[in-house]
Amino acid sequence: MERLQKVIASFGYASRRKAEDLIRKQKVMVNGEVVTELGTKVSPSDVISIDGVIINKDVKHEYYILNKPRSVISSVNDEAGRITVVDLIDTEARIYPIGRLDYDTTGLILLTNDGDFANALMHPSRQIEKTYIAKLDKVLTKEDILAIKKGITIDKRIVEVKRFKVKKRDLEKNTDIVEITIVEGRNHIVKRLFKGLGVNVVKLSRIAYGFLDIKDLKSGEYRNLTIKEIKKLYALTKK
Description:
Shape: elongated
Mean pLDDT: 90
Low-confidence stretches: none
CATH topology of the largest domain: Alpha-Beta Plaits
Number of helices: 6
């Protein structure tokens, strides 16, 4: 017997958090009866349906890495009709992004229909490194760089910076291009980190997630993760 929301996630219908929302909204039925209790447990023989549709227990899990272009939403759908990361991938599976990148942020994002896999990677306790390239509207001072390396406090929590370096400096235009590696997953965290120093991020791109990078993918391109990569990502969640 397993919790209903975990089972729904394992089928690839939605993330565990989304599954909990569906249960609260009384959209989930087990053996023909509406379920509203999040603690409900089900067995392999139970018939689970969402919005009247029985979940396919034999669903094949899919895993993708995408180089997200600018002006694309990190969501399954968008009420304003804007293009989403899901729109860019040719599949009939109910995939969704693992985490998110801002509308104007480009780069590496993972998508899957494996709820357990997604939850394992997104859990706050996971220390998975994420590397970004940021173009700044100011040249950083030595004091700024020292503060970044020591860790900037945002909302009473220190943003731990694993690695940081200035890749290119334009004194005439008063701009820096920097590379920064963090393990944070909070919204707008890179932009907020620099904002705390009075510096704006003009462009931002995530170039690596753990051991994965997007060197072989042009903007808008994607590929399936290999079995080896999936296993290595799972291994990161066990550390």
